[in-house]
Amino acid sequence: MRRGIEFLVTRVLRSRIGIALAIAVLVFGVIGTARLVSGPADSTSGLSSRPREPITTVEPETGDDGIIGTPLPQSPETRPGELTPEQTADRFTSAWLGGPATTTEKWQANLRPLSTVSLTEKLTGVDPTEVPAVRVIGEPTVRPRTEAFVEVLIPLDAGRLRLELVAPDGRWLVDAVDWERE
Q1: What is the pLDDT of residue 42?
Q2: CA angle 131, 135, 141 (to 5 degrees)
């Protein structure tokens, strides 16, 4: 027994492992004593208690502010004597498809009166023979977004053409062209 105590004091408690074990025994002893002294835990007190009612971040009496409650977009407005969004999209699509014999200059000239200045600049240098479709195969779908902005989807033989039309002054012009392959 004496040798065991001597080994414990001289070798184990002087090493790092011995000191770590002594600290661990001390910590667990303090925690165990505190639990014994405190008595049984009350689950409704302290930070662990749950609220009796759901937590709300909006006033329950106010109306729904979700997307379902948003008003429908207003129908597009056209200046008298000007093309409607459907007519503009139809003419632009016909000019955009062009045909195999269309030159770059003629293609640009046909698109220019139906396009915004920014789209005309973006289409500069585009080769009309690289247009991936040949013909329209269905009716266009018009999605009004505001009075002066609509989106038109046109089904073509090789995909779908999406045009964004704007009418800042009542005259509809194509502002963006997007292509989706099928």
Answers
A1: 60
A2: 100
